[in-house]
Sequence to fold (262 residues):
Amino acid sequence: MEKDNQKIEEFFYRNNKQVNNPIIKSFLSDSKNLYLVQKAILYPTDRNKKLVDESFQSHYKNVRKIKYVSNLIYFFSLDFDKKRRRLQNRTLLILDKGLSEEGGTTAKEQIEDASNEKEFENIVGERLLDNIEDEQLLKSLQKLTVKQLQILEMIYVKELSIKEIAQILQTTPQNISNLHRKALNKLNNTLRKKEE
Amino acid sequence: MANFGNQHSEEALTIIENFIPKIKHCLHNTDYQEREDLEQEIKLKIIEKLATVEFQDAPSFWDYFY
Fold:
């Protein structure tokens, strides 16, 4: 047994350089392969050597494939983008053309989209309560008075200023500010209570 | 892809699965509208190449040693 170990060690020592070759190293890191190699060193019959070779060749091919695929993915993604750009530049829409010679801004970017904001409002709804996803927050909001809710809605959904709101509700800005603060405090309290 | 055996497709599948992080990373090489397309194209290409490319025969293990 000790003699065997010595033999194996000697073999690896003699071939130190090859063992450090990445492909050999990764091959030997699999204990199954290492076992095959050791067997072939101790009993260098044709059959044992062949077993090692078969395993090694499939390992080698696998490494090749992985390397190939890795490169393929990278370069294919670059080519794909190049091709896409070329096609896009060939059939450029008027709106996508640059305004000046150097490009930079395109005509498309100059168009203001007025419909966008409206669409957004349609999606989320105009009411404050329609916009709440959090259930706890919704429940706490429903506990507020109608006026408080109204003020919160105008501040946070319609984004009006305190002054504008005061005009609409025909009261003073100070009053609005007070009601706003009270509403927030109440929300804060109810939410905290629930957390406990 | 007439001679596309079962063993081949399974192998391609495992390789693709192992490479998904790399594929996702490479998607950043193109516009975000094109990424889904690119992902599909890459996977298709891998399958195609693994089936058609003849990988060089490996050298014998014992060629390395003496």
Summary: The mean pLDDT of chain A is 82.
